[in-house]
Amino acid sequence: MAPRPTALLSALRAVRRPRLPFSPQNLASLRLFTTTIGRRAPDLSADAKKIKLTSASYPDLQRDPRFTQLTERHVAHFKKLLGEAGVIDGVTRDATDDIQPFNEDWMRKYRGESRLVLKPASTEEVSEVLKYCNEEKLAVVPQGGNTGLVGGSVPVFDEVIINMSRMNRIHSFDEVSGTLVVDAGVILEVADQYLVERGYIFPLDLGAKGSCQIGGNVATNAGGLRLLRYGSLHGNVLGLEAVLPDGTVVDDLCMLRKNNTGYDLKQLFIGAEGSLGIITKVSVICPQRSSAVNVAFFGLESFDKVQQAFRAAKGQLSEILSAFELMDATSQRLVHDVRQTQKPLEGDHPFYCLIETSGSNGDHDYEKLESFLEDVMSREIVSDGVLAQDATQAKSLWSWREGIPECLGHWGGTYKYDVSIPLSDLYKLVEETQARMEEAGLVGNDDSYPVVGVVGYGHMGDSNLHLNVAVRRYDPSIEQVLEPFVYEWIQSRNGSISAEHGLGLAKKKFIGYSRSETMVGLMKNIKDLYDPNGIMNPYKYI
Ligand code: FAD
Ligand code: MLT
Ligand code: ZN
Q1: pLDDT (tens digit, 9 = 90+) per residue, 315-337?
Q2: Which of 102, 153, 275, 540 to mutate to test ligand 1, by most ligand atoms within 8 A of the CB atom?
Q3: Which residues form the FAD-binding PCMH-type domain (predicted)?
Q4: For residue 10, is pLDDT > 60?
Q5: Residue 25: pLDDT above 50?
């Protein structure tokens, strides 16, 4: 029997300890637990450790014969242009091990065969490199932190990798307007840390912040954990500088909030996933960092109650609400299986939510959040909940949400669907997918089953569900059950097949489920105009 709400409330009070005052310093530490996202080291067999070549997993994909094969002449040219520090050369010598991390994606699903990584250090170098590649018909893949989740950041065949990590300067910050200008290769967490010291916050935050780059964030129009509060990069990016395949530098590094003079061309690069050009600099408007951050974590017995809680949170926490994240029971069970740390709540609940508030008055915000929790508990919307008493507890609660992607990959891999659907239907997709997996006899606890679990989590505040299927191995039989089922399901609800991760290679052929022929036709026209030789990130996007 579910415990009475009053008993839960006293349990909630019982865990309360003296609170640490929130200051910009401990706010900083609040988010700093997101350490560098490196290669995960799951306990896999030697066979499973090897990522299959993309060309072997998807034999229908063929190398485009229009593209030139790299030769020593090309490499000599690049070395002259960028110096030894700017070139990892696997053409004139065996550099397989050095190039491997650039060829493989974070999900361990896609592996290309590039033999050349270029690391330009300035816009001029990017321009020279692209101009030459365009003239020589060398296909390229722009690469930031390589944390993308749709196979967009690694080559499919032998494309030249243009890695942006050496373009990592913070150029300027206006402490009055909050305008930050950075190179594309600046790591998100580095930019955010720089802003912390000045009382500001980067308007985007995500679990990969220790590795992803601002150029990659803009190129994918990343959404993240606080879009609910700060909005999308389409609104926050004030300007950018980008290089077109023919070497033209598009200087639209505007720092103005308002600018209605002509088409807003920078928007084309936001979310273009490197298909039109390479972003080299970005100016972004950053909000003032809130001096008070509070976090609550609670369990609920149905998705209907999750929706009621969301409505109540919007009504009662209104302007201080900065995140409303959803996690289902399976996601939390799998995180627990991997980490074996103490769960935030006793017992199991079908759903969990994490709420964060960010405001300017700690006590006032805390009271608001507490009375919200008291209200939803007394109305039996929420079954149990905890409120973080300090930054360490807040960080620990966040880890149950942010740790999901990494923990899901523990067994071998994850099929990822990142979708937008009207809220009322959001979780049905997980239930129906789970039923299909069971029907197909693919899901089970021991190693003979390829599927470990079907999981739903995501950004409830943005109607953005992450349907994930954690697997012991990538297997066409699983993919056949999932596709096109998931896409048809989304289409029938007028949803989006890519809410925040983009199209990359994974979603390229499914774009028609969310975009009309006319829209896709216009996109192709734009692609042809900007990149007539098709050298920019081929085989992906459209
Ligand atoms: P990469 O992965 O290197 O590249 C991504 C795409 O952008 C590729 O197509 C690449 O060609 C292109 N690109 C990169 N840099 C440039 C450039 N300078 N110019 C032009 N094109 C470029 N995403 C979200 O939206 N929300 C989340 O909450 C979120 N959480 C994540 C959590 C984890 C643990 C992980 C691993 C990933 C998460 N992601 C999330 C996905 C990923 O982190 C984002 O897509 C991120 O923005 C990618 O940045 P990156 O620098 O790693 O880009
Ligand atoms: C998240 O919200 O955690 C990210 O988008 C990553 C993922 O979907 O796995
Ligand atoms: Zn997400």
Answers
A1: 999 999 999 999 999 999 999 99
A2: 153
A3: 110-289
A4: no
A5: no
Q: And the tokens for 93?
A: 């010598």
**Neighbour-count burial for 99-131, b at 16+ CB within 10 Å, e otherwise:** beebbbbbbbbbbbbbbbbbbbbebebbbbbbb
**What pLDDT, in 10s, does the model give residues 37-56?**
333 444 555 555 689 999 99
Q: How are beta strands 413-420 and 464-471 bridged, if at all?
A: antiparallel
Residue nearest to atom 1 of ligand 1 (CA): 146
Helix axis angle, 362-378 to 5-14, nearest 10°: 150
176 and 266 inside one domain: yes
Ligand 1 centroid – CA 15 distance (Å): 38
Same domain (yes/no): 145, 55: yes
Domain final residue, candidates 133, 163, 193 = 163
- Ligand 2 neighbourhood includes 413 CB (under 6 angstroms): no
Does a structural domain hold residue 537?
no
Q: Left, alpha or beta for 271 (phi > 0: left; psi -120 to 50: alpha)?
A: left
Domain boundary among 285, 309, 341: 285
| Residue 281 backbone phi and psi in degrees, to 5 | -145, 155
Domain identity same for 119 and 199: no
- Give distance in angstroms: CA of 122 to centre of ligand 3: 31
Does 2 map to a domain? no
pTM for this model (two decimals): 0.93
Domain for residue 520, yes or no? Answer: no
What CATH number has the domain bearing residue 393? Answer: 3.30.70.2190
Atom of ligand 2 nearest to the CA of 401: 3
Residue 541 forms part of a structural domain: no
Give the distance (Å) from ligand 2 centre to CA of residue 343: 20
Minimum-distance ligand to the CA of 191? 1
- Closest-CA residue to 139 (of 113, 120, 101): 113
3-state class (DSSP) for residue 393: helix
Take atom 27 of ligand 1 and give the residue whose Cα is closest: 224
Angle at 317 between CA 225 and CA 21, to 5 degrees: 80
88 shares its domain with 181? no
Range of the domain at 451: 405-501
* CATH code of the domain covering residue 280: 3.30.465.10
Q: Let me know whether 189 and 149 are in one domain.
A: no
- How far does the chain reach from its first CA to its final CA, in angstroms? 52
Domains in the chain, number: 4
